[in-house]
Amino acid sequence: MDQEQINQLKDLLSAPKKIVIVPHKNPDGDAMGSTLALYQYLKKDGHDATVVSPNDYPQFLKWLPFEEKVVKFDQQNAIAVQLIKNAEIIFTLDFNHLSRTGDMEQALKDATADFVMIDHHQQPDNYATVTYSDVHVCATCQMVYHTFEMLDATGSIDVDMATCLYTGIMTDTGSFRFRSTSSRTHRVIANLIDKGADNAFIHQQIYDANSPKRMQLLGSALNNLRVLPEFKAAYITLSQEELDAHNYEKGDTEGFVNYALSLQDTRLAMIFIENKQEGIIKISLRSEGDFSVNEMAREHFHGGGHINAAGGRSDRSMADTVDYFISILPQYKLALNA
Question: Which residues contact 155 (CB under 8 A, 6 or more apart)?
Fold first, then answer.
């Protein structure tokens, strides 16, 4: 964010405003951590702020401070629409196209508020009055921390805000192991721990609260793991029948794709998850090195994201989706074997 944008944001927040803060559909740790941290700051600063999420999020995020204050668009539609309609400022966090909010998109397009975008994904849209976009930052939560720096507001960060920000950075960096984790990231994390974030407790809440059914679902996923050594690729499939057999809940498959990526000599990993209700195959893509799954997702699977982590979808059947994926691999063979 350049100085002109910083000054513009300061002007927008110079008097109490009605503010809505929006994460993307199916929000993850970074989306919820960033929105809840910003919510707490804005409330402290005297604003009438509300987080409005397009839909619900996994159980392993339900412990986050002030999570109970979130309004869910799909469950509390009338309240959510009115909040958006009345908003003077709308912050959109961890996404850069309004289409990423699903059924909430039209309500946002109809809004008269000034939009502020804070996001680290590639190719941002231009809907916002203030845009803070940086693809080199590992997590939107880190960008929210830097936003507080720009607003001279890091002194407002308390233990609850630090907890939310730490959660988002930890989850979006794979516990700080992804290439996007920088020395600056570690300095931010150190400051958050100094502010009271309990790193061991946060890790336990996110990663060590597995249910037996989730572990059994992971077993099914690993049983479906297939390796394509010629392309240094691997993929996992999960059918709706397999999800139902293990009483699938939102978030149960989080991180499963990383098991495929962890295989020796694997640079590309995919997981294909059937969603019969929406009539799609949901896809998560991961890669190592400089192979861009963002480009693959955008070109072939109606999605996008980061160089090493992206998402997408397919309207084909599971079998046809997998066949299509295998059919496009030859065009990436040189890049995957570089």
Answer: none
